[in-house]
Amino acid sequence: MSQRPRPARIRDAEATRARLLQAATAEFAAHGIAGARVDRIGAAADANKALIYTHFGNKEQLFDAVMDAHVSRVLDQVPFTADDLPGYAGRLFDYLLAHPDQLRLATWHRLERSGTGHETEGLRASMRQKTETIAAAQAGGRVPAAFTPEDLLAFTLALTNAWMPTSPVAAAGEDAEQHRAAVVEAVRRLVT
């Protein structure tokens, strides 16, 4: 009995790049940069691992591309409004619960990339845009100026992350609705 030959694969660089980013997201979320393995990423993406170097340069640059993609996704799906920081905190809370890899990637980024001079442009631009938007709202009297824009953003993000599954105080099966309400109320109190 003869075997049928496998159909020739059509080369699609963008599809390969997308598969590599998806596989890298799972690998980096689970293992961080140091623990991630390009051979596992290549296998999960059904691509030759050499293509990682072709498309991204190296493992660290691949991680940066993953971070930028996820920052872009958050920006698209969780609109930031300085005039409604409590609402933003609630929307971000919902997003992070639905996308746990996002918080894991951010945690790995803080552990392995912060302070190294390799801040991703998307993350840097996002933080800059948010603090500038808060500063403008403060200058316009719409947001109290009791805290610097940087502090207010840091507090909002920290409160939002406090009840995520990676938090040391969050227990499995906790009432997410109750914690979401507490986060929104805490941020509301920061800005009133």
TrEMBL record:
Q: Which SUPFAM superfamilies match?
A: Homeodomain-like (SSF46689), Tetracyclin repressor-like, C-terminal domain (SSF48498)
Which keywords appear in this protein's UniProt record, sorted alphabetically? DNA-binding
UniProt keyword DNA-binding, yes or no: yes
Name the Gene Ontology molecular function terms of this record. DNA binding
UniProt DNA-binding region? 37-56
Top-level lineage group? Bacteria
- The residues covered by the HTH tetR-type domain are 14-74
| A biological process from GO | regulation of DNA-templated transcription
Q: Which Pfam families would you find in this protein's record?
A: TetR_C_21, TetR_N
What Gene3D superfamilies does the record point to? Tetracycline Repressor, domain 2 (1.10.357.10)
Full protein name? TetR family transcriptional regulator
